[in-house]
Design goal:
By secondary structure, the protein is mostly helical. The chain is built from 13 helices and no strands.
Length: about 375
């Protein structure tokens, strides 16, 4: 976590330097050399170095919390993932504008202020965050079959595809929320002005962002009760059905409710997948595999919005239906992939029988270690 904090704060500091160099201190910003240098430093700091700090800090904190709360992993990791989403909303709507006001609209100074605040918060937080596997928490760990199960290549690919497909649908529809809502509203009330339609679209975006954050916690919490795979099947399957229904919806209110549901389910997938990975392969390996799986989310973020935007520009009269059906197909495929983990998940969450204190090879359950292995399904 300390390294993540250093990268994250350093990213803001380097970005501030890039913005400062572009303010005219080394030459006219209209000069290609000056503007190029300023952009490179800004992208290196904010995009690369800061991004490394953000990604590693996020994955590490999720893994740490899952280790401390093995019986409530869904709720614990869902809380962290929800904080990730709410933090982005708070940053864009509250903290960044406030920093700009304090800096008298000087962006470079605003970046420095933000870096300073984050540095203080992260230094204090890092003093109280440590892995349970390196402390007394290890004594409370209940070993499961997941601790001894090595992830196979096709399983990693399937987990990656689950993350990619639900992110394709979630991020894709989020990128078109405002125009889709405006189209439905205009069809229901042709007399609305452009300003009114823009306000309706912005309102849905705000409500959906709240639903996204709430879904990250609520679905992950539910997974503690009914199981991770069952929650994924419900979220993905019902969201696919909603997308198949959306082309027939003419009411703006019903449209908004359905859209908020699928976005809350997208957030739920985002919040539940860390605990699913922990169940399958153990908390110690969750960080590595979670980071790998999240590249599916990143890939969807790079491809879905541009692709759906292209459809909307190229086929304005039919783009909405194309988007809905593509999202439904992606989610149905993702549902099938999630179902394929049902048997493995049931096996991996089984507790490994404790060994008696006399050192004999017979576990407390009455089976020898060899017998336990013999009864395990083929991996």
């Amino acid at each position: 976590m300390k390294r993540s904090a250093k990268f994250f704060v350093a990213g803001y500091l380097i970005a501030a330097l890039g913005l400062y160099l572009g303010s005219g201190v080394i030459g006219d910003i209209s000069s290609p050399a000056v503007s190029r240098l300023s952009f490179i430093i800004l992208a290196l700091g904010y995009g690369v170095i800061g991004g490394i700090g953000l990604g590693t800090g996020y994955v590490t904190s999720v893994s740490t919390v899952a280790g401390w709360f093995p019986d409530k992993k869904g709720f614990a990791t869902g809380m962290i993932v929800m904080g990730f989403g709410i933090g982005a909303l708070f940053m864009s709507k509250v903290f960044a504008p406030f920093s700009m006001q304090l800096a008298s609209n000087n962006v470079a100074v605003a970046f420095l202020l933000i870096a300073g605040v984050f540095a203080v918060i992260m230094v204090l937080a890092c003093r109280y965050i440590y892995s349970p596997h390196a402390a007394a928490g290890l004594l409370h760990h209940k070993p499961t079959e997941a601790d001894n199960y090595e992830p196979l290549l096709h399983q990693r690919i399937r987990l990656w595809l689950i993350c990619f497909t639900y992110s394709l649908a979630g991020l894709g529809i989020i990128s078109l929320l405002s125009p889709l809502m405006q189209n439905v509203s205009l069809a229901a009330n042709p007399g609305r002005s452009a300003a009114e339609l823009a306000a309706v679209g912005a309102t849905l975006i705000a409500i959906a962002s709240i639903g996204n954050s709430v879904g990250r916690l609520s679905w992950a919490w539910i997974s503690d009760v009914i199981g991770r795979v069952n929650v994924f099947i419900i979220m993905l399957g019902t969201s696919a059905v909603v997308f198949l229904i959306l082309p027939q919806v003419a009411s703006p209110i019903i449209f908004s409710i359905l859209i908020c549901y699928v976005i809350a389910s997208y957030g739920g997938c985002f919040g539940t997948i860390p605990s699913l990975i922990s169940d399958l392969y153990g908390a110690k390996r969750m960080s590595t595999l979670h980071g790998l799986v999240l590249t599916g989310w990143a890939t969807a973020g790079l491809t879905a919005p541009p692709f759906f935007g292209y459809l909307y520009d190229k086929f304005p009269d039919h783009a909405a239906n194309y988007v809905y059906y593509i999202c439904a197909g992606a989610l149905l495929f993702s549902t099938a992939l999630a179902f394929s983990f049902k048997h493995l998940h049931k096996h991996c969450i089984m507790l490994i029988p404790a060994m008696p204190s006399d050192g004999s090879k017979t576990p407390l359950g009455g089976l020898t270690a060899d017998e336990v292995l013999d009864e395990s399904p083929t991996r």
